[in-house]
Specification:
There is one protein chain. The chain is of the alpha/beta class. The protein folds into two domains: about 210 residues, Glycogen Phosphorylase B (Rossmann fold); about 180 residues, 3-Layer(aba) Sandwich (Rossmann fold). β6, α6 and β7 form a beta-alpha-beta unit.
Length: about 400
């Protein structure tokens, strides 16, 4: 089968799926948006990859205006058209869209429909809910109206797609009740992390030595910082460890929020907090292995419909995790049910700090929770079983499509 997978963000686990599908004999084109500022997976063909795999960047040829609402919208439409052109040239029998902003999704789905290519909407977030919540908070009635417009667009995309893959049961419930999507075309398939690429590492490793962290007790946050991420717990934690000379907080991220953290830490004299740029994926296991505790945060109004992929990567690293997120968030549920760490409610900075400090002071608890984290990853992140489920989705879609497989 000829399969085009477009993962707008270029994250590690989506390209791992493309590699596995190519190993199974499919011709796979993996597309990603090169100017999107986020941690990336291995987005080039390696000597170990099958000849049936192609990985290509789709580019605007200029910087992406992520924080300009008007410019960003037009650029997301434009990148959707670029993706559509490349998809059309590839002539796929199956199209999978992942992490696509709603305006980009609309362009890609329109092209897919026009060329009779079955489309699988791999929905990582209910973007319109986050848009409506965040914009209404910032712009009042106007923000709510914009959010409702995007709700209609996202609903239409979900209904027109041949299949929808969602990452948690709560997403499925929302699509049925609020979007009117038929239950028969929704599959719940939780996200994962590339288990064979993110492995437990000793604290003293090339990365920790190179950055001077081998002798520190390290608290680490890695990944995107955006509007749905609450920075207050990180700053409060930095204040709480101000007088612990053996402790260091490191954030690896980029963009305005990362710069805000850096500026606030400097203004408050929080020299226990360091902000570094995104680190190469090839070093990611060492980055995570350098830490005693791994942390994540998410806003209350975004937490129900967004599962931080960083937490899934954290699980592979065999380190305890502390997250500030709603109890309903899937990441919180995983930590609470497996004993891989602690989840505390958004806004409860006291409990967040206490949980981190408790782990920092208790090596046995760190080892116990780290082992539980890795055990969960090994049980749930096996790529062969995950690819089997995607194969089943593709088979079901083609069985009901108007075009035969193998055209």
């Amino acid at each position: 089968m000829r399969i085009c997978i477009c993962d707008y963000s270029g994250h590690p686990f989506q390209v791992q799926l493309s590699r596995e599908l190519a190993r199974r004999g499919n011709d796979v084109l993996h597309l990603f948006f090169s100017e999107f500022q986020t941690p990336h997976g291995t987005l080039h063909v390696t000597p170990d990859d099958p000849a049936t795999l192609s990985i290509e960047a789709v580019s605007l040829g200029r910087p992406f205006a992520k924080y300009s609402l008007i410019k960003r919208r037009w650029q997301e439409i434009e990148i959707g058209r670029h993706i559509s052109i490349r998809m059309t040239a590839f002539r796929p029998e199956m199209m999978v869209g992942c992490n696509l902003p709603i305006d980009t999704l609309g362009e890609v789905l329109k092209s897919s429909r026009a060329h009779n290519v079955p489309f699988v909407f791999w929905q990582q977030d209910i973007y319109s809910k986050a848009i409506r919540s965040i914009l209404q908070r910032k712009f009042g009635v106007l923000g709510r109206l914009v959010g409702e417009y995007y709700h209609r667009l996202e609903r239409r995309a979900a209904i027109l797609s041949d299949a929808v893959v969602v990452i948690a049961d709560r997403f499925k419930e929302e699509l049925i009740s609020e979007f009117g999507v038929s239950e028969t075309k929704i599959t719940v398939l939780e996200n994962w992390a590339p288990l064979n690429q993110i492995t437990p590492r000793p604290k003293v490793n090339p990365w920790s030595i190179a950055h001077g962290f081998a002798g520190s007790n390290l608290i680490l946050y890695t990944g995107t910082l955006g509007m749905k991420h609450n920075l207050a717990p990180i700053l409060a934690l930095a204040e709480a460890v101000r007088h612990r000379p053996d402790t260091q907080i490191v954030v690896t991220s980029e963009g305005p929020s990362a710069e805000y953290l850096r500026t606030q830490a400097a203004a408050a004299g929080l020299d226990r907090l360091s902000v570094l740029p995104f680190q190469p994926f090839e070093q990611y296991s060492d980055v995570l292995g350098s830490a005693e505790v791994l942390i994540a945060t998410i806003e209350a109004d975004a937490g129900g419909f967004s599962v931080p992929s960083k937490v899934l990567s954290y699980l592979c690293a065999a380190r305890p995790i502390v997250i500030s997120a709603p109890e309903s968030n899937l990441a919180s549920q995983i930590l609470n049910s497996t004993g891989a760490g602690r989840a505390v409610p958004p806004g409860d900075q006291t409990s967040f700090i206490a949980a981190v400090i408790e782990f920092m002071n208790d090596k046995d608890a760190r080892l116990r929770c780290g082992a539980a984290a890795r055990a969960y990853a090994e049980e749930n992140f096996e790529i062969g079983a995950i690819s089997d489920r995607f194969d089943a989705i593709f088979t079901a879609v083609l069985a009901h499509a108007s075009i035969p497989s193998g055209r």
